[in-house]
């Protein structure tokens, strides 16, 4: 089993970040730094299939684990993403156990499941045999369900019992909006996030989240949240540029 999937199963702390730029350079650069994973955000950024292809290739060239947050849960979207060699997917707006069961089936080979092709990047372009490809798919594919809708809250117990899902990723910003709030730190939002973590822990299912305030890290780690996708290539560029501007202004004023 891939160390990332194994780490999710044992709830080891994992740090990744989002990639918002659909050009392989950003993926290539960030894959030099040793993140547990990079997540290409094809839900909110303008990735097409060619962009995913080159960005996944850039990650693989550097031995980097790579996830894709896909824009929908359609069969062809899941199939194309995994065939390109992504190590797993983050599926937005998972609302029910039935929906998640269908998604999981599309991620794995088998009856009425993922379509098989031995000519893809994932399959080594025909250099791996079918037995190797089936084993790789079963042991290495990470399936991460994003919980961000009120509908999902009523189905949490059932969702956590779906076989084949590796992690629930909490979409706190969408939950904030869904709950009628504008502050992700509103008591109702925090209570809801804590409830999701509590139910997932009950079933020994890993949870993950994005947080804007890194001061929260210690709290959520103590609650056994394990996967943190923090920041993005965009935020790193902005932070670096702002730091440069601040340093320059400070230097000017000291003259």
From TrEMBL:
Keywords: Lyase, Metal-binding. GO terms for molecular function: aldehyde-lyase activity; metal ion binding. It comes from the Bacteria. The keyword Phosphoprotein does not apply. The keyword Metal-binding applies. Residues 25-234 form the HpcH/HpaI aldolase/citrate lyase domain. One of its GO terms (cellular component) is cytoplasm. It holds the Pfam family HpcH_HpaI. InterPro entries: Aldolase/citrate-lyase_domain (IPR005000), HpcH-HpaI_aldolase (IPR050251), Pyrv/PenolPyrv_kinase-like_dom (IPR015813), Pyrv_kinase-like_dom_sf (IPR040442). SUPFAM superfamilies: Phosphoenolpyruvate/pyruvate domain. Belongs to the HpcH/HpaI aldolase family. This is HpcH/HpaI aldolase/citrate lyase domain-containing protein. The lineage of its organism: Bacteria, Pseudomonadati, Pseudomonadota, Gammaproteobacteria, Alteromonadales.
């Amino acid at each position: 089993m891939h160390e990332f999937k194994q780490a999710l199963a044992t709830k080891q702390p994992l740090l990744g970040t989002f990639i918002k730029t659909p050009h392989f350079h950003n993926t290539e650069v960030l894959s030099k730094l040793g993140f547990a994973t990079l997540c290409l955000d094809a839900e909110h950024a303008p990735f097409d299939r060619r962009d995913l292809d080159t960005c996944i290739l850039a990650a693989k060239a550097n031995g980097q684990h790579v996830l894709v947050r896909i824009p929908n849960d359609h069969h062809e979207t899941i199939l194309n993403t995994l065939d390109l060699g992504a190590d797993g997917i983050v599926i937005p707006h998972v609302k029910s156990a039935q929906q998640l069961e269908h998604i999981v089936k599309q991620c794995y080979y088998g009856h009425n499941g993922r379509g098989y092709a031995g000519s893809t990047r994932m399959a080594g372009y025909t250099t791996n045999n079918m037995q190797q490809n089936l084993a790789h798919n079963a042991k290495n594919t990470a399936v991460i369900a994003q919980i961000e809708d009120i509908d999902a809250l009523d189905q949490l117990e059932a969702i956590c019992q779906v076989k084949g899902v590796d992690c629930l990723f909490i979409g706190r910003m969408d939950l904030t909006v869904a709950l009628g709030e504008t502050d992700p730190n509103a008591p109702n939002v925090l209570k809801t996030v804590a409830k999701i973590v509590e139910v997932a822990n009950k079933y020994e299912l890993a949870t993950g989240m994005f947080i804007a305030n890194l001061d929260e890290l210690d709290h959520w780690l103590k609650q056994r949240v394990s996967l943190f996708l923090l920041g993005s290539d965009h935020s790193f560029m902005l932070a670096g540029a702002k730091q440069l501007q601040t340093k320059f202004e400070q230097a000017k004023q000291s003259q």
